[in-house]
Amino acid sequence: MSTTKYWVQALKTAKKNFNKLFHKEAIPDRRFVDNKFGKYEVVRPWQVSDQNTVPAYIPHPPYSKYMQLNKGLLKPEIKNENQIQCMRDSCDMAKEVLSQAKQFIKPGVTTDFLNDKIHEMIISNGAYPSPLNYRGFPKSICTSINNVACHGIPDNRPLLEGDTLNIDITVYLNGYHGDCSDMFVVGKADEEANRLINITDLCLWEAIKTCKPNENFSSIGNIIEDTARKHGFNVIPALMGHGIGNYFHGPPDVLHFANNKPGKMQPGMTFTIEPCLTQGDVEVEILEDGWTVVTVDEARTAQIEHTILITQNGCDVLTFK
Predict the structure, then answer these.
(1) Which of 28, 189, 228, 239 would bridge 193 by S-S if both were Cys, CB 3.0 to 4.6 A apart?
(2) Is residue 57 included in any domain, yes or no?
(3) Nearest 10 degrees: Cα torsion 310, 95, 320, 206
(4) Which among 172, 221, 159 is positioned nearest to 63, based on CA atoms?
(5) SS3 of 280, please?
(6) CB under 8 Å to 46, separation ≥6 — which residues?
(7) What is the pLDDT of residues 214-226, one digit of tens each?
(8) Is-contact 42 147, C-beta < 8 A?
(9) By mean pLDDT, which of 11-15, 167-171, 176-180, 227-231 is the weakest?
(10) Does 61 map to a domain?
(11) Is 79 helix (H, G, I), strand (E, B) or coil?
(12) Residue 36, domain member (yes or no)
């Protein structure tokens, strides 16, 4: 789940519109485009159902009831062996759940159905779905389709043939969060959609290759933007990776665009890399639900995410299966 510069605005808007989300009856006007970006539906939010519940016997993160976050870390955390093992366990579960999601994706299925299935998988394994009530987020996963860049809220819109779908899963297990996301195609998508997804994956893995002790964090953004531009895509700068541990989001902010921000990787640090590429311009906006981030020019996007551990000799991709 991305951290963005819009979260202060998003939290205020989410509180204001929280009840409205669950009483949105009308199906939005549907609009399809066939242009230089491809042929697809421009997605807007549909009706959102009630929240799922998590049994009391499953440990809940502190924000689960009150939408409030504890005071965060001031600098990146160096984890000890016990903390690292906890991260490995939570990331193992996150990647396993994400790998199981593909079986449910087909035309006609709603993202609300996907949310329910994945929610049940997470709680049946004794974990808490981290997005649920995080800063007021109403669902257990994020589902972002076509022109939705990130933080799409699962709803009752049926998936269509050719949709591109990001599913973002984070689990809270034994007090630690494991975070990952991947892109899926509903049925068959056009060539440009597949190319966008493939280059996003390439950008992520080129960035991962740079990760090692004493490497600049800025190297991540520099290689991602360079790779994306070589293939004709842009990186949405508002969406960043983040430190992760017993906190969902913390330092460092991991920028995915070219930069010279100070900060070096050290053994024991865990953080996400989650570049979001677009076919068009980089400008995005948050819709009235306070969460859904869409491209202003309605171009499609793709985002893929892994959680990384810096080791003595390089890095481990904790969410790679």
Answers:
(1) 189
(2) no
(3) -80
(4) 172
(5) coil
(6) 24, 27, 28, 155, 156, 157
(7) 999 999 999 999 9
(8) yes
(9) 11-15
(10) no
(11) coil
(12) no
In this structure, is residue 43 part of a structural domain? no
**Predicted TM-score (pTM) of this structure:** 0.92
Angle between the 81-101 and 111-124 helix axes, to the nearest 10 degrees?
A: 140
Q: Residue 57 in 3-state DSSP?
A: coil
- 3-state DSSP call for residue 32? strand
DSSP 83: H
CATH number, domain containing residue 152: 3.90.230.10
Count of CB atoms within 10 A of residue 192's CB? 16
Tokens 């049926």 -> residue:
158
How many domains are contained in the chain? 1
Encode pLDDT of 272-289 as tens digits: 999 999 999 999 999 999
Q: How far apart are CA 157 and CA 83, in angstroms?
A: 40
Length of the chain as a residue count: 321
Q: Is the pLDDT assigned to residue 259 strictly greater than 90?
A: yes
Strand order in the sheet with 276-278: 234-235, 276-278, 301-303
Q: Which domain holds residue 225?
A: 3-22+80-317
Distances (CA, A) of 98 to 92, 271, 282, 298: 10, 18, 27, 27
37-69 residue pLDDT tens: 999 999 999 999 999 999 999 999 999 987 666
